[in-house]
Amino acid sequence: MLFMAGSYDFRTIEHKWQSRWERDSLYRTPNESDKPKYYVLVMLPYPSGDLHVGHAKNYTIGDAVARMMRMLGYNVLHPMGWDAFGLPAENAAISRGADPAAWTTENILNMRRQLRLLGAGYDWSREIATCEPEYYRWNQWLFLRLYEEGLAYKREAPVNWCPHDRTVLANEQVVDGRCWRCHHLVERRNLSQWFLRITAYADRLLEGLDKLSGWPERTRTMQRNWIGRSEGATFAFRVEGLDADVHVFTTRLDTLYGVTFLAIAAEHPVLKSLEGIVSAEHTAQIAAFAESLQSKSELERTSLMAKRGIFTGAYAIHPLSRERVPIWVTSYVLAEYGTGAVMGVPAHDERDFEFAAKYALPVVTVVVPSTTRPDDALEQAYVEDGRLIASEEFTGMSSERAREAIAQRLVTLGRGKTSVNYKLRDWLISRQRYWGTPIPIVYCGACGEVPVPDDALPVLLPPGVPLRGEGSPLAAVPEFVETTCPKCGGPARRETDTMDTFFESSWYYLRYLDPHNDHLPWSTERAAQWMNVDQYIGGAEHTVLHLLYSRFFYKFFHDRGAVRGADEPFENVFHQGLLLRDGEKMSKSRGNVVGIDETAEQTGVDAMRLFLLYVTPPEETSDWTDEGINGRVRLLNRIWRACEPFFEQGGANERELPPARNAAEKALLRAVHVAAKSAIDETLSHRFHYNTTIAKLDELVNLITVSSGAAADSAVAAYAVRALPILVAPFAPHIAEELWERFGHTTSVHLEPYLQPDDRALAVDEMTLVVQVNGKVRARIVVAPSIEEEQAFALALEEANVRSHLDGKEVRERIYVPGKLLNIVV
Q1: Interatomic CA distance for residues 566 and 246, integer angstroms
Q2: DSSP one-letter code for 258
Q3: pTM of this prediction?
């Protein structure tokens, strides 16, 4: 690492200004202000321990945006807090014998110190930690509001269960069918779990995406796919020999006559009924097959490599053709998706085609392109629309017409109905863990399921609970479990599940508005004042669940009048790219972590910030290099040396544009305003390509350093130098503050208005016009910016290379882009 040399003592200066900013509460945001509001928010971090420069990229982008908007005249809210509940703390407690609360608090203290070390301008008076009772009390209060509306409910659902640790596992905690911790085979069990009825908002969540023009299109597309709305029909196959139906949903009714099997989930209730109509051998095979799936996660069951199935020995009756259709139990159909059964149409579904090939099942083509003869061989599934064949009276119809006609026939027969289906499932929030928000429900023998009254909140986590990773920790604490019923006063038992940590992170942005309110989670007045979030910044890994859950919560709040205006929480969303080291993600196991503390000590915080903003466009993946950080160190040293000659002059910053005496001074003035325009444009466009802005600052410092107009007695040079602290303040806040003070100012540079680009300085006396012949560059000519097309054409004809390519040919067209291009088409 390259150390700063000369008179710029970055260690002393950065510590000086961080201490002063904190002393003066410089970034505390008033609720009352004549300025327009701007709410910029970086996704709250999990307090996992030490931060490294990869984490710093996210916070630096957000801080630069906040500083820019403040200097552009906005009342900026820029808070910070901690997503402090969750499994990592519990795992640390199990493996280290630590208390989760103490472990979390220790990490918060360290990470708060590191964020302050970054010079980030957070309003720390609004800090929250989701593990504090003052916060999770409102988790419980919001749960009860959802419960009142029927949006929080309990039902049985299949889960991944580790019989050794006696706990539920998330899909990602099941590795090759085994518990990630104890490596015991995992089972699929039905357990009574708490859900939030997010599906009630499916259509609104989908429709709302069309209004979110400030979100990345990829993010919106992923949410659309996750919700997965599809229009089709639900209809029934009667099971032969039973008074029972198997219901399926499909969007492709036009392929109904191509059904050659039914695929049902191993948990489908009809399987119990089949025992009376199939052989004992089939019954045993079904049971063995179902048992083999108990150790498989959803991902393993639905993966392409894991497609397995077994014939049940039973048949269903096709609702229209009345043909017998074999019923198969398969690994890839899940009970909790749709109806738990799908119609197998190998000729027109890729998954069914592969399954049929594996088990030698018939493939019957019923839809073909209009240009294809019916006897053409089918080598792969045809999944597009076309015209129907071999479909009784529907033969010859287009797919679109046939879907309508077949749906009508099923409705008439009482065997089906048109319907809408979603991939989206209700949100499972139950967790059999300690370190989370207790669910505020008690169970009474006389009254049943009873919500805890608001005035009895919060239901506190008991301290000192032994954590062994086996079963639900709270269930083993009698003092917690045993309580009295709020309705009848009789003995009752508390719910021992805690909430999914996505619950608290789905509304935290509202608590920042009113963090010390002990009557409500936030006041409607504060929400009306600050919402929605103008700019949300965070990793693309939260593209779906966190953003979707937050939107669901906000729409619910909007329905209850707790928030006003738009029913979307985030106006603009930005996903930063990863920062790698030697082409790999930073991790302790790889030994490639670049720490914030060591970087601040060796090169300074401003150099680190400039590197993180400069190395690539912020949405792209970038690589940390010593060469790159050293380049930013050199820029800061050059800025300092350029400003040093002007320290003794004192005086206020001159905002008035001075006259330029020569071409060098004109270029210098223009470079100042080009940099200012770049910073403002990148901010207001929400692109945040500050790498471009910092490149402009590089060019400006070069001109100050080498231009003949940069003498100490030059008014233009003084203007350019005195503009530097303003220009660099959002990106390198410490050196900017120090330079501002050295120039004689007694107020913070971060309270100054940003330099507004001046058209007079940006104007150029001449420019280069590209001349093409038939789209190929043949000349570049220097012209006045205001030159008209006829003049440009005349000057182009004076160029020998242009004349030689015209060579007496007829000019058919001229394409003129003023100030840029003349294309002569011959």
Answers
A1: 43
A2: G
A3: 0.88
What whole-number distance in Å separates Cα of residue 544 and Cα of residue 221? 10
β pairing state of 813-817 and 152-162: unpaired
Q: Which residues pair with 531 in a beta bridge?
A: none
Amino acid at 210: D
337-356 pLDDT per residue, tens: 889 999 999 999 999 999 99
pLDDT at 71: 98
How many CB atoms lie under 10 A from the CB of residue 283? 17
Q: Are 347 and 368 in contact (CB under 8 A)?
A: no
> Which residues contact residue 771 at a Cβ distance below 8 angstroms, ignoring those fewer than 6 apart?
777, 778, 779, 780, 781, 796, 799, 802, 822, 824
Report how far residue 232's alpha carbon sits from residue 724's, in angstroms, rounded to the nearest whole number: 62
b/e burial code for range 740-769 (CB count within 10 A of at least 16 → b): bbbbebeebbbebebbebbeebeeeeeeeb
Question: Which residue is listed with tokens 């493939």?
Answer: 363
SS3 string, 753-810, reads CCCCCCHHHHCCCCEEEEEEECCEEEEEEEECCCCCHHHHHHHHHCCHHHHHHHCCCC
Residue type at 116 in one-letter notation: R
Dump pLDDT digits (tens) for 770-809. 999 999 999 999 887 778 888 889 889 989 899 998 887 8
Helix (H, G, I), strand (E, B) or coil at 439: coil
Q: Is 154 helix (H, G, I), strand (E, B) or coil?
A: strand
Closest CA to 28 of 755, 753, 750: 750
Strand locations in 28-136, DSSP E?
37-42, 75-77, 81-82, 128-129
Distances (CA, A) of 394 to 371, 406, 463: 18, 8, 69
Question: By percentage, how much of the chain surpasses pLDDT 90?
Answer: 75
pLDDT of 28-65, one tens digit each?
999 999 999 999 999 999 998 889 999 999 999 999 99
Token pair 């050196």 in the structure block, residue = 735
- For the chain, give the number of residues: 826
Residues 6+ apart with CB under 8 A from 810: 826
Q: What is the DSSP string of 493-557?
A: EE---EE-TTTGGGTHHHHTTSTT-SSSSS-HHHHHHHPSBSEEE--GGGTTHHHHHHHHHHHHH
Residue 649 carries which DSSP code? G
Structure tokens at 119: 């010079």
